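Input for the complex:
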Amino acid sequence: MVRAIALRLLGVIPVLFLVTLVLFVLLRLAPGDAADLLVPDDAGEDEVARIRERWGLDRPILEQYWRFLLASLQLDFGRSYRYGADVFGLIVERLPATIELAFIALALAAIVAVPLGIIAALRKGSALDGAISVFAIAGVSTPTFWLGILLVLFLSAELNLLPSAGRLPYGVTLPHVTGVYLLDAILAWRLDLLGLISSYIILPALTLAFGMIGIIARITRGAIIDVAQEEFITTAVSKGLKRGEIIRHHLMPNAAVPIVTIIGLELGVLISGSIIVEVVFSWPGLGTLLYQAISVRDIPLVTGIVVAYTTMFIFINVLIDIIYFMVDPRIRASQAV
Amino acid sequence: MICVRPIQLFGSALLSLATLLASSALSTAQERIMTITATEPMTTDHPYGESSAPVYSMWCHTYGCLGRFDHGTGKPVGILAEKWEMIDPVTWRFTLRKGLKRHDGGPGPTSADVVHTLQRIRTDKESVHSSFVAMVDAIVPVDELTFDIKTKQPAVNLVSALFDRFIVTSAELFAKHGREADKKFAFGWGPYRLEEYASDRRAVLRKNREWREVDGYDPKEAPDVVILQQMREPEQRVTALLNGEVQVARLIPPQLIRRLEGRKDVKVEKTGGIEVMFLAFNNQMAPLTDVRLRKAVAHSINRQLIVDRLLGGNALVQDGMVGPNQFCYTGKPDRVLEYNPARAKELLAEAGYKDGGPEIDFYTAVGRYISDRQVAEVVAQMLRQTGFKVRLHTPEYANFWSEVRRGRSPFYYMGRGSVFDASDAAGQLYGTGGSPRVQYSNPKFDTLLKQQYAEADQQKRCQLWRELNQLLIDDAPTHFMWTHSVITGLRANVELAVERSGEFWLPRSKLK
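Predicted:
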């Protein structure tokens, strides 16, 4: 197990190398010049040239890439053109907001989707199964930007139920420990703030979760139906075990692997795919940062964020492998041999 | 009449409950807080690191700038400077106000701070402000509070070029702390003190209790705390205004005004803007090198129809570089390029396109200007109706702008913001060698432009502008379209005079 994880982690190096190389080349081949976007409209060509020189944009691509590689070995991704700040620092500052949003969205999705999938599988072919399928397909098919705006219009503007943007209002002081506000509030024993923090996170989390509910519910349903057709389930039924016992002890543990897989994969998708939702809700996470960085061709920042996303994605996959190991005795057994 | 439904009451109650739960943490409950949406990126706390009118305005309120332009009266008003005068064609003398204190209790602004400011704008690697001080040759201190600004050439427009943008920062704090001064010692002399700056989120400004306007006005009714909350999506700004999250929602697009109309708790204010929108031709790229074709384009466009139908009447058709909302407008030009499709067809025929054509590529940014794509689609259609064969391109703004800046776009729709005094914008767009964006060259235009830079008599200067305006209409290097209205949504308890630039001066605002 340890060896497998170590191998996986070693694999990160060539992946990151390739990702940065492709990004570097693509961003420089793309039309649009960062220097043009950094200066005001009334700036002359000499000012643009000065900015280009300042950021090394006048040097050959290979030289720029080589410098980037050398620096990134020390976790120095350079300075953002636009923010004028250290890229690594910016990522570390924004990451907790994205992680908080992703985990809450995932929790919401899993809480709703797994029971829905189980119900649909157990009532396979019924009207309820059909209704859940329709709901699931609607979730998968709904564009997040549209749903986000709709939720804002209805729950914020029309009903005045929840705030429409941001993470916390001005005047609320919260000790910064992890940057994940819900966790920080608990750590500081400021339970009075949990409601307020949740009121800000619920709309973006719901928007993100809606699409996932469909996917997780469909996978759960399929996994349970597959396992239900296995012979050991027939044996369990023949032995006269109660329905609940069969579900808890035989059906669910064996259906867990694909469910865990999809939840894990969705977490990766969530972290890297929350860009639009973050923009719609002015959520100050990595997504907003990436959106801004791309629009102004902030190459060091775009590269840094994509490297961060890639690393997280690989890390999540390793985590899923560990969870497999824990939930599936067959995998444990095969590793032990 | 506004009906409140039970579910809305329930919603409000729930939101209030969440706020109540956090009330112990809200140390500012008694203060009058005004939240204003910020629509432009807020990316750096470097006072010269970002260039947009809202960012200039934020730093002008905190650090302080020499002065501002009151578009209502059409006159410059001092902020840190109390008087200024032109003492010869290339020298302006400024006197700073006495009795100001820095936010940390330090001394008031001095000539040394102004000299330091120019130096930092020009040499700081992160500064992107150097373009608007390009005309400045040197700043020479006369005494502690008086200094001369020497320009490279006569520049009667110096005050309008520097005011609102020349942010004065402390030489002493920078000498002590360097770049950290912007982060931990962001003290200036302005009417508000910077309390918090969180990039891409918000800036919090707290009222400087000792501030008095240059005319002695006490801003006691101005808000104690102003939060500039970044909200770049218009829908979100409107929603936040409606549910009371913000008190001022800036840059409301025309199509969203109806969500605010008919409500007692919000109001909509419209101000004539100074962002000049135009169709630009690259005068060196065939076939639009032919003035007849450029004029045919102009006669093909029914600007008033677009303003009325597409922009909801929220724009003012403009015939030249200088229009009714700008400095030195002396009335309608003698000859204008009105909508006249018959004349457009005649001009096409004269240019050798009797049977249709020419083929032209037309570019627009998307989402940069109000309804830009929709405007471009209508323009393209109007051009097709008179016989042009138009291919409309809608690249991402970064690509669009890069091509325009390098003079590689043959024909495009865009705007030029904050053009109150049009001198510098005109020089850059239409002056020979000004930039490759339009590639227009006319010695007569260059001479007149140079003359107006040196003409201290405003009446004579405006007459020169009338001639310049007419030249630009007759030669049609661009076809001027309109200036958009600046539309701002306000809660009913807010009084805020929005300038034509879209900015405002907070000490004169009121939060009841």
